[in-house]
Amino acid sequence: MENKNDLILEVDHLTVNYELEDETVEAVRDVSFKLGRGKTLGLVGETGAGKTTTALSILNLIPDPPGVIKGGTIKLDGENVLEKTIKEMSRIRGKEVSMIFQDPMTSLNPVFTVGDQIAEAIMIHEKLDKKAAFEKAQEMLQIVGIPGERAAEYPHQFSGGMKQRVVIAIALACNPQLLIADEPTTALDVTIQAQVLDLMKELKKKYGMAMILITHDLGIIAETCDDVAVMYAGKIIERGSLEEVFNTARHPYTEGLFNSLPNIAERKERLKPIPGLMPDPTKLPKGCAFAPRCPYAKPSCIDVMPEERHFGGTHYCSCNAYDDESFHLEREDIVL
Amino acid sequence: MREKNTLVSRQYRKRSRAGEVWHRLKKNKGAMIGLGIIVLLALIAILADVLVDYDTQVIGMTLKDRLQHPSKAHIMGTDDLGRDIFARLLYGSRFSLSVGVVAVAIAVVVGVILGAFAGYYTGGIVEDIIMRATDIFAAVPNMLMAIVIVAALGANTLNLMISVGVTSIPQFVRTTRAAVLTVTGQEYIESARAIGESETKIIFKHILPNCLSPIIVRVTLRVSSAIISASSLSFLGLGVPAPAPEWGSMLSSGRAYLRGYSYMTLFPGLAIMITVLAFNMVGDGLRDAMDPKLKK
Amino acid sequence: MKKAIITILCLLLVSAFVFAGGSNEGAAASAAPKYKEAVVCADGSQITTGDPQSINNLQHNRLFKCSHNTLVSYNSAAAVYEPELATSWEWSSDLLTLTLKLRDDVTFQNGEKFTANDVKYSYERIMGMNSTASSKFVGVLDHVEVVDDYTVKLVLVSPNVDWLDTLALPLASIVNQKAIEADPLKGPWVGTGMWIITDLEEGDFVHMVKNDNYWGGTTPTRELTLRYISESSARLIALQNGEVDVCIGPASTEKGFIEEDPTLELIEIPSATCCYFAFNTSKGPGADENLRLALAHCINYEDVILGASSGEGTRAITNWGPATYGYYDGFGDYTYDLALAKEYLAKSAYKTLTISVKDSARLRAAQVIQANAKEIGLTINIEELEAAALTAKSAFKTAEHESMIYTLGWNSYGDDASRAYGKNSNTNKATLSDDRVMELLKLARECTDDAQRKSYYAEIQTLNHEHAWYIPLFYTELSVAVNKGVSGVIWEGHQSHDYSNIVVSI
Amino acid sequence: MHRYVIKRILLLIPVIIGVSFMIYFIMDLAPGDIITQLVGEDASEEQIAALQHEYGYDRSVFYRYGKYMLGLLHGDLGTSYITKKPVWDMYITRLPKTFWLAIGASVVAIGLSIPLGIVSAVKSGSLIDNSCMVLALLGLSMPNFWLGLLLIIEFSLNLGWVPSGGFRGFSSVILPAITIGTGHMAVMTRTTRSSMIDVIRQDYLRTARAKGVSEHKVITKHAFRNAFIPILTIIGGQLCAGIGGAVITESVFSWPGVGRLIIDYVHQRDVPVVTGSIIMTTIITGVIHLAVDLLYAVVDPRIKGKYSRKGLRLAPRVKTKRGAA
């Protein structure tokens, strides 16, 4: 894990802003994480936490304007993608890293056949002619569970789940080493969600690629991921292996996430949603962004930027409450 | 993307809608320049009587001074009847602007009412009649329609306004209908109905205000094309009657002099161009400012 | 031997120079003049038909002078009637019958022989046509008698000493019965003229090729096209570009370009076109003589000419064609006298007057008059109308206009005055039905005594001067820009130029 | 699909009836009538009466209209009062010229506007965007006859590259096409821009970029094809306007087109020519609109499905922003 060659992705101090007319949205603030080959990282957080922005940064696809990558490095297979030229980037996109987007309804170009859309990626990266690429596209469709003949059909002729399979086929068409899946199942029906997830897991195993799975569904994380990173207001506030984060969540926000999950076993218990809303991203507090909503917050939390606390292994969280050695979350009382 | 949009719209929720549009319009340099020009033109048009004397400077002629190139005495030269082009241009703003504005006002009033009916009572005979009639009007090319109307009514300022206005009606009917249709289908109208608000209240409080932006944009753009249509009709001898210094008729009266005395067409031409440009820039700016999709 | 050869060679060489027609270009250039094969004439009015009897206007007249022939023609330079298809003619003593001898060597362009029957057919066709042209015949010509193949008798309803002039108009062209019966649309194109109409696209051009069997001579030009270019600037540019050879009516402001251009020439034609102010004397302000005279004395005529036509025009003293029979201006012009004008105006109940106009020159004239009238406190409104609307508004029986500015192209014969003064004439823009004038017109029409006839016309003009039904403004100046090589055209003051013999040397 | 086409063509019939009614009545009731035009200024009363009878002017306008429509029912567009030619013949000699001019103008407008619009959209909000829009607007705000004459003076007179006017082969189309095309530019550029801006923010472009499609191809292939429908609508609209004839440009360039045919005969109150030509224009316009609507299906496969569905009332008109036509 610590060996550099085993790392497919290394993000260091990534900072991304959206510079609007008169305000600046700090979407990603000093985010660092690493991902090993073949591993799956779950990126969890509320809408607006900066998960998608982080993912797009890896492909250098932040819409510019208004998005600006202010600092940091993103090393993909040891090379900083932020220093690549546009041309080099387009060789990396789809070949080294692929991305699956949230809404399959809008991710496919409505005016081209799905076969063409898959074949296009193949033609770009594998220098195949149109016919060969199309044949390979048909194979890819079969791999994702769609009959190859349907390659000549247009996206509007497919259902949501099928579309997401097509998107997956596009993403996997050139055997990328890293797949970023941005809430791949959010827009799908629950039954379809499971199918798509199974498919992704299976394909991941088959191709042996690494994956970043962005979701706010902790259940999916539990099922799919090796590691988990929790984002809040543009920062990773807790990071660790699946077991570490799920069993011994350290950050009050992570605890809040777990508490807001319904528990089928004990239905009598009322859900405990996290009170309040995420802070205005243009006016983030100097200190911990979660402090205004944090049940454990002390006045100093607002002013002092929390530091990373490591809890052995890869597990860390950013919370100043741990200055107090005796501090522990309520949840631990229950679990332990 | 998604994240970003939520952030942005939250940010703007602080202002009223009009304030928000104005705020964004202010950022658009082109639109502000255009607006400045329009205000200036409007001021000139209102103060025309103060700035120049109609009888002596605008229609009064000194034939010995005819066709003088621009000089200190006549900064834009004189026309074929020895009248100062600058004075005529200043006064002409009154005619050209009013032709544009009144024509569009006619179109807006008729078009919006019909369009609102057609959009609100969809599927019925009302819609059918209105839209079929609109199709018929729209089927005839604008310019031909205007020519036929002016030919029938006779060429004078009012008829010019009517003919240009009538030819613009179909656009407003369609724009309004489309806007009303979209708005009527929105959930907040449903919810207004659900909480039992009256029909009139729904139309006036919820539907029409929300239809305004496409109509406003269309108005600004249409004023400029109305000015051009009017000048085209003047070219065909169907415009504002002489000696009124309407820009289009000034321009077309200079066409025989284009080669030797190009300033006779240059200045009215520039005046039309600048006005049209100004209205268009404001129109474009308004559209950008009102279109949530174009928010940055 | 050697000498002989040299002599023969020299002879050959000389003969080559002499006889080189179109075959040897290099040699011919210096010896014989060379002409363009295809000539194009541009005009600002469009030609809509090739049927000479259906229409009577300038641009069509120019066409029909090429394609068709009339029995007689009028030589305006010499002021005499000349034979065309007729060789001679004779009036009966009661001035009711005109007997014409016809040429026997004429064939139509379709090969049919021309005889007296064609005259009968043509004239009867006009009578039954209900066209602008036919009104010149209906009520004037009673019937046509064919005496023999080459003699024809025209019997009139009432004496008309100017009847020959009508026969000389292109509308009295002779057409061919067979051709018309075969093709009602293109049949009337077939005439006896020098040029055969091959193609006519209204609003664009008329194309003609030379009739090699023409009875009246030949010309080196092979093709003649009349093109319609409505914008005067574009028309002149086409001439400057060499796309056309003749440009009718260049804009007066652009005459400088013609003078500058060494390949072009400006032809100025003495004009018979009079621009005048006409009051509707039947009702309203125009019926008030004081108002009419007030206006007559306040107009600055020089300014009107300057404003309306850039100063290119001559002051008109009387409302009559300068070359028209019976011209008289002994009463002098209206003096520019504001005090007098105000005096007249004071006597009038009207203080406002509307002028109806249709085109830009008249519009400009109206604006000058408007400014002039302001000086004496008379308010003038200008009403710009389309041609059709103005014609309808000012039609004799239903005249609604108050006043208008009108331009009349005067023909040379005296009775042309009936158009401006005669009852029921729609060109009688003054809606005049003065008994004395009507009587004078009739007397003149039937009078063969020259001095007497002229005195009738002089009286009409004097009456007009006294009552100011019409205020004559100016005679327009006619100009035509041509390629310098153009010759052979008969330029007419009434603008129905004859292009038949046009050649363009190169 | 066939059903749809047939339905659309049938829907043209009420429009034709409406248009013919409207134009016939306006023309017929306009001051000044054909009789005075025909018979000249010194006709006798008998002549006028005869003509009035011949053309039905001794009866009501409804009679004349009815007679005209009866002819139309048999495919007869009427006969010109002035030239006595069938209106169909007159129209059909003008149509090709107008057609070439309309096509030429569209080519000019498309060639200039689409690149400008795309650049504007991609650089939206920048100085380049603003300059593109001003450039496009200049074409619109410059009166056609002014631009036309300037072009003639420069390119025909001074440079001698092209004829000054008339319909004389390909080279003669260039200047009038530029004159009209630049007038179309503003609307088309604006449409391209706003349509591209709509599309540029679509998720599927991100998908395309994410799979490594070059930026150039993302814009020209993926985005443009999606943005094309509103542009197609505008092209169709401008083609239709062109078929109606560009009266002023036709005047300046002595172009024997439909526009001038109509205006010349409006002035002469030749009701059948005006009505017949406008009916033809309406029909051709309707066909172009239909063709455009069918082209939508080629550009966007989603629309195809809608055409074959039964009971469709009207075309799925794509909303567009047409500023100045």
Strand percentage of chain C lies at: 15-25%
The H-level CATH homologous superfamily of the largest domain in chain D, spelled out, is MetI-like
Rg result of chain C? 26 Å
Oligomer: heterotetramer
How would you state the average pLDDT of chain C, rounded? 85
Number of helices of chain D: 14
- How many beta-strand runs of chain D? 0
Mean pLDDT of chain D equals 83
Q: Strand pairing plus helix content of chain D: what structural class?
A: mainly alpha
Features:
heterotetramer; A: 336 residues; alpha/beta; 8-stranded mixed beta sheet; 4-stranded antiparallel beta sheet; 12 helices; 32% helix; D: 325 residues; MetI-like fold; 14 helices; disordered C terminus
Please explain how this structure is put together.
The complex is a heterotetramer of chains A (336), B (296), C (506) and D (325). Chain A has 336 residues and is an alpha/beta fold. In chain A, the strands form two sheets. Chain A has an eight-stranded mixed β-sheet with strand order 6-7-8-3-9-10-12-11, with helices on both faces. A four-stranded antiparallel β-sheet of chain A has the order 2-1-4-5, with helices on one face. Chain A starts with 6 loop residues before the first strand and ends with a helix. The model of chain A has no long low-confidence stretch (mean pLDDT 80). Chain C is of the alpha+beta class and 506 residues long. In chain C, 32% of the residues lie in helices and 23% in strands. About 4% of the residues of chain C have low confidence. Chain D folds into two domains: 72 residues, no CATH class; 223 residues, MetI-like (MetI-like fold, Orthogonal Bundle), CATH 1.10.3720. In chain D, helix 5 packs parallel to helix 13 and helix 6 packs across helix 8. The radius of gyration of chain D is 23 Å and the shape is globular. Chain D starts with a helix and ends in a 17-residue tail after the last helix. The C terminus of chain D is likely disordered. Chains in contact: A-B, A-D, B-C, B-D, C-D. The interface between B and D is large, with 56 and 62 residues.
List the SSEs and their pairings.
The complex is a heterotetramer of chains A (336), B (296), C (506) and D (325).
Chain B: H1 2-12, H2 17-27, H3 29-46, H4 48-51, H5 54-58, H6 85-120, H7 125-139, H8 142-153, H9 157-184, H10 187-194, H11 199-235, H12 247-253, H13 263-290
Helix pairs in contact in B: 2-13, 3-6, 3-13, 6-7, 6-9, 6-11, 6-13, 7-9, 8-9, 9-11, 10-11, 11-12, 11-13, 12-13
Chain C: H1 2-19, H2 25-31, E1 38-43, H3 58-67, E2 72-75, E3 80-83, E4 86-91, E5 97-102, H4 116-127, E6 141-148, E7 151-156, H5 163-168, H6 177-182, E8 195-201, E9 205-210, E10 223-228, H7 232-240, E11 246-248, H8 255-260, E12 264-269, E13 273-279, H9 289-298, H10 301-309, E14 313-315, H11 338-347, E15 352-357, H12 360-375, E16 379-384, H13 387-393, E17 403-409, H14 417-421, H15 435-445, H16 450-467, E18 470-476, E19 478-483, E20 486-487, E21 503-504
Chain D: H1 2-29, H2 34-39, H3 45-54, H4 61-73, H5 87-122, H6 127-141, H7 144-158, H8 170-200, H9 203-210, H10 215-243, H11 247-252, H12 258-267, H13 271-299, H14 301-308
Helix pairs in contact in D: 1-13, 5-6, 5-8, 5-10, 5-13, 6-8, 7-8, 8-10, 9-10, 10-13, 12-13, 13-14
